[in-house]
Amino acid sequence: MTRALATILLLICSNAFMTLAWYGQIVFKSKMERWSIAAIVLFSWGIALFEYCLLVPANRIGSAQYDGPYSIWELKVIQEVISLLVFTLFAVVFMKSDTLRWNHLAGFCCLVLAVYFIFRK
């Protein structure tokens, strides 16, 4: 597996944990109604630990400073685009109260343009 592909796969997995840590308490509200905010925060931190266990190696593997294929700018933009894609999938599948609309897609297109400009030499 190439360093570029390993970086992307690790970022996808880390973002799945990040999204669950940030928004899982909203999706699973009925199961967590009796939890205190402190318990929810600690639970979310526990999930976020797995995010960091994947995110840190992804950045090291992918970083040009560690002989990876991406500059720090490229890594950040890749991370943001993956984050929005993972969030969109999560929102469409789990968050039935909110719908994906045209303006969300337009904003995503702007992010794709950001990727283009960041990677342009």
Helix and strand element order:
HHHHH
Summed up, the helix count is 5
Q: Determine the fraction of residues in helical runs and give it as a percent range.
A: over 70%
The main pleated sheet reads as: none
Radius of gyration: 16 Å
How many β-strand stretches?
0
Tell me the fraction of residues in β-strands, as a range: under 5%
Flag low-confidence runs: none
Shape: flat
| Alpha-beta classification | mainly alpha
CA distance, first residue to last residue: 25 Å
Arithmetic mean pLDDT = 91
What labels describe this entry?
mainly alpha; 121 residues
What's the arrangement of secondary structure elements?
Layout: H1 3-27, H2 29-32, H3 37-62, H4 72-94, H5 102-119
Concise summary:
This protein is mainly α.
Overview of this protein structure:
The protein is mostly helical and 121 residues long. Helices cover 79% and strands 0% of the residues. The protein has five helices and no strands. α1 packs antiparallel against α3 and α4 packs antiparallel against α5. The mean pLDDT is 91.
